[in-house]
Amino acid sequence: MLGQLAILEAAVLDIPDLLVLQAAILDQLVPLQATQDHAVIPDQLVILDQLAATGYTGSIGYTGSVGYTGSASTASGFVGSAGYIGSVGSTGTTGFVGSYGYIGSTGIGYSGSLGYIGSAASNSVPASTSTTLSLTDNGKCVVASGTITVPNAVFSQGNVVSIYNVSTASIAIASGINTLRLAGTASTGTRTLAAYGLCTIWFNSGSEGIASGAGLS
To answer: Which of 202, 143, 208 is nearest to 175 (CA)?
Structure first.
């Protein structure tokens, strides 16, 4: 038994393994107490205690000191000198003058319409007499006291005849023309000229006359 313990003592065992081994040896030594010398058992227990002892834990090494922190540099680098300003370049030559553009063609203006022909004289019609207008009345003022008839297909566009009622009663301006229109309306046909009324008939064509004036209805 002692030889076995000596072999175990020389063996390299972890602590948990030694504890397991110690328990196993104690299980074998307990029956020996009844048959062997009691002096042997204490020695064996001492050996077991030596086997169960834990080795020393080494001391922790020193922690090295922290190195010095270098100071921050605040110095600025040198500013380079300003470069030279170049001289002003020469002025270039003046460019060529472009040729003149073409002259546009002369516009053609519209010709204005002929103005009204002023009356040279007035044709007087007797107060008791009615009459029909004729081409010779163009540009004149007919002074009348009776019915004045406007004929068809006698006058041309632009012809003008004025009529003055010299009487104290209304007279008729009869429509012998296809269309005798009251200016500014759609009304056509025979017109009435009040006493001392004055009207003018402008011919748009030989078949249409437009009448307007004071006292005309």
So the answer is: 208
Q: Which CATH architecture fits 122-216?
A: Sandwich (2.60)
Q: Which residues contact 169 (CB under 8 A, 6 or more apart)?
A: 195
The answer to pTM > 0.90 is no
Residue 149 CB partners (closer than 8 Å, separation 6+) = 130, 131, 132, 133, 174, 176
d(CA 192, CA 101): 65
Helices (H), the chain: 2-10, 15-32, 40-52
Q: What residues does each domain of the chain span?
A: 2-52, 122-216
| Enclosing H/E stretch for 46 | helix 40-52
pLDDT 10s digits, 131-184: 999 999 999 999 999 999 999 999 999 999 999 999 999 999 999 999 999 999
Secondary structure E strands in 23-157 = 122-124, 131-132, 141-144, 148-150
Of 117, 111, 125, nearest to 164 by C-alpha is 125
Q: Is 192 helix (H, G, I), strand (E, B) or coil?
A: strand
- Pick the closest to residue 213 from 201, 36, 204 (CA basis): 201
